[in-house]
Specification:
heterodimer, A: alpha/beta, D-Maltodextrin-Binding Protein, domain 2, 2 domains, B: 295 residues, MetI-like fold, two-stranded antiparallel sheet, 15 helices
Chain lengths: 449, 295
Amino acid sequence: MKRKLLSILIASAMVLPLLSACNVSTDDGTNKKTTKEQENVDDGGKDTDSGNAVNITWAFWDDLEASSDLMTQCYADTVDRFNETYKDKYHLNVVTTNLEEYDSKVNALVAAGQTPDILTCNPGPNADVYVESDTVQPLNQYLDADPEWKDSFAGGMFDRVTYGDDIYGIPTNFAAACCFYNTELFEKAGIDEVPATWEGFLEACEQLEKAGITPITNSASTAWCLSMIASYCMNRNGVDTDALNEGEMHWTDERCKQGAEDLKTLSQHFQPTFLGDSNDDATAHFYNEEAAMLVQGSWVIAQMNGNSDTIEDKCGVFSFPTHDGSVGDMIVKTDNLLLSATTENPEACIAFTKMMTDETAQKATAEIAGKIPVTTVDIDLEKAPKQLGYVMDLLENLEGTIGFYNESLASVEAGDVFDNNMVSIVMEDSTIDEGLQEVEDFYAENVWK
Amino acid sequence: MDKLLRDKKAIAFFVLPAGILFTLVLFLPILYALYISLCDWNALTSPVFIGFQNFVDLFTKDKIFKIALKNSIFFMVFSLITQQIAGLLLAVVLSNLKHGRNTYKNIFYLPCVLSSAALGLLFSFLLKPNMGLNQLLAVFGIEGKNWLMDVQGFIPLTMWVIGIVALWIYVGTTMMLYMAGIAGIDNTLFEAAHIDGANKRQTFFHVTLPLLKPMMKTTISLTCIGSLKFFDLVYNMTQGGPNNKTHTLATWLYFQGFSYFKYGYASAISVVLLIMSLAVTLIVNRTINTRDFAA
């Protein structure tokens, strides 16, 4: 009898811990954190005591507590403001990760049926997948219900998040890829005017090198950084991503080859360590004044000013040059908030998206972070970082816009294939013909079939 | 207790919890992955059965899969050779130390208890072009290589570098297992060898090594399977780049699933990985005969 009792006790001791992991809840869903929400704390997300409030989650690609990025700090302020304004009603928890891991993490959450209530997403293939699979919901009803809010957005802001007649994303800021340059280093090299043509751009690089200055800082280790310049090189030679995606143009076309050739030529003027440098390393070379130029999205203003007290006064901005000296297209993108189709608290989510796009948040976006607001808010350019004014001047004279290549090509994988082969060409692991043939083969196999 | 162990119901009763747990967290997911590997599935819509198409694509069209396969096999062979030799040598040397054995044992084992993901990040910093190792080399006038971006050759330098980092991390495990094996050898055998006039080298090759065969079988199996599954170091040091030249099967699987939403295809890679792991285990079990020495 004793033995039987002992064996039952031992078996129970083995089984009970298993059962204890199965959280049987009698909660009405309004006042306790879910396991998912608890993860936010572990992830370094912004999480405070929510009391009896309805909890919602927002997935974002930077650490709101630790980041020195001024835009992220503005977002952190908005989260605090939201939680304070809606105290006892709504509470927002933030699922954070670093940028490189972000898409994979969100994709894993989506695949596991744990889609965050709100997710940050750039336009392009990832958003396409979420829309096509009904992972996220159209937002027309919420926008139509509040015409004042809808009309506050600048023209064209919804273009890249509209599918058919449905709007799926609320933009929070707008960015353009530009050439940032150090005016002091340009002066030191004897360059009086920023280059407007491709030839002038190469001459400026040579002049900087002669003065012992690294002309351009870039990262091949973070492939999309190099890809941004590759995209401009392709565009300046007449490559059209829509035509490529539709099969009306081929990657083996002479224009693509010339674009890759230009990229390779320009890479001769990158810092010697560009192959191993990350995006952050490359940006640091610029704000530490070790390189004269940085080709980056305007989001970098917040990063460089957040890390250097001196760069703002020395930083100028110009458009990536064209062969004929025209203004040319500019690579642009918006950061957007998408709403999960399965969220149980759409009102809370909409309240947060409205707060992210209200006057306070948008003024902070411009005046503190130096990013371009998405609404028609009046901003005080005196308060804003100087670089923002320069970028906005460039946008006023804009001829046309294109998307980032890793967001404009046929799929996420297509974007990666392009990025990787541009790196391969620049590091001479493959020739221009071989690299472009790889992209062509991928398209033939996966896109044009 | 003997009576209890002869009672089949009692055995079943004790085995059942573990059996249920294994079925739920191991066998069922494996079976599900087998099914998904035969489907075109993006995890957001219903899977579409496509037979063996994913496997056909893997072996006929996917160039990166072949690179990943080559790299995984390289890691397995490299880890097998280096960890066995270094682990055994360390174990023999430390077992014969009279003073400081535990201190050295802890030092060599320390990397094993640290997170390999964190170590991967640490080494990715140390091996950056203008940091860590290259700065140290520059002091001696040596120009360091681009350790994590060199992809020239059949096995690129970057793969050797990751292999060496893996050796540094995991050699402690092999060492500990061999030390346990050596500690289990009866001292009278060494005394008998000494009386018979055997020197240290002869004792090692004719007494220690043969008696370590069962442990060798274990360490070889663990090293091979561990190397085939290699993920965290590669992911944190290179993310499979540049241009996918440093992918292993596990990292390529991860990208296919979590970046490209190709869960069916990723499952097919996981099935290949499973078959390779089982094959290696089988080969090791069949080729290393321990019957003569187990007693």
